[in-house]
Design a protein that fits this description.
This protein is 34% helix and 31% strand. A hairpin with a 2-residue loop joins β1 and β2 (14-19). The chain has a 5-stranded antiparallel beta sheet with strand order 4-5-6-7-8. The protein has a 4-stranded mixed beta sheet with strand order 1-2-3-9. The protein has helices at residues 30-52, 56-68, 123-136, 138-142, 146-162; strands at 7-11, 14-19, 24-28, 81-92, 95-104, 107-115, 165-173, 176-182, 203-204. 16% of the residues are buried. By secondary structure, it is of the alpha+beta class. α3 (123-136) runs antiparallel to α5 (146-162).
Length: 213
């Protein structure tokens, strides 16, 4: 969370979403994520039933809208994603990392340069946190449909496969590198326990329920 008391805290497999404007927070754990996922799945089923009864032109328009929203159209095909080691290595911020190639339907999409968790200060804790967040959100992403579920969980799958901490991500378009994000520096400094507590004076707000009147 930032100095103004806005943002989010992840603690004990629970997210505390802070709103500094009205000094409230929402508690989101795996059970809440699963409930939201179930509500999304039910809404998606109703939408797909409605699509089935639409004229072809209107159905095509609605399916395109669903794709743009990230949910994917019914029966849509998810690109085949593969992650494999290139055997190359690079040095990023003084850390040696192994380059992994990510392809979509055989076309190069990304390069991830990963360092062993043991070589990165706090690396093991970072991987553990990423894994916990991935497991926590499984129910929610499942409710978005197969295509969106796979897309949302790609990062966790990649990290699990490469077994290291990505310290460089290189994006590709048309076979050429288009952008790059790399680790610049790692600092170790004490963090006050208060950074992982809901600020004093904040009141809990209930999460909205989809379909509630």
């Amino acid at each position: 969370n930032d100095a103004d008391g806005d943002g989010a805290i992840f603690k004990n497999k629970t997210i505390y979403a802070l709103n500094a404007e009205d000094k409230t927070y929402a508690t989101v754990d795996k059970a809440a994520m699963d409930r939201m996922g179930g509500q999304l799945a039910e809404a998606r089923k109703k939408m797909e039933a409605q699509l089935a009864g639409m004229p072809p032109e209107r159905r095509a328009m609605m399916e395109q809208m669903m794709k743009q929203m990230g949910g994917g159209a019914p029966g849509g095909k998810q690109p085949q994603r593969e992650v494999k080691s290139t055997g190359r290595s690079e040095s990023v911020a003084g850390f040696k990392c192994t380059v992994w190639e990510v392809t979509l339907d055989g076309e190069k999409h990304q390069e991830l340069c990963a360092a062993p968790a043991s070589a990165i200060p706090g690396g093991a804790e970072l991987l553990a946190t990423m894994r916990e967040i991935g497991e926590m959100t499984e129910g929610l992403t499942a409710g978005l449909g197969p295509m969106a579920q796979r897309s949302a969980n790609e990062e966790w799958r990649d990290v699990a496969k490469i077994g290291g901490v990505p310290i460089l991500t290189r994006d590709f378009e048309g076979g050429k590198a288009s952008s790059e994000t790399r680790l610049a520096v790692i600092r170790s400094e004490p963090v006050p326990a208060s950074m992982f507590e809901v600020p004093a004076g904040y009141k809990e707000r209930k999460m909205p329920t989809m379909g509630a009147q």
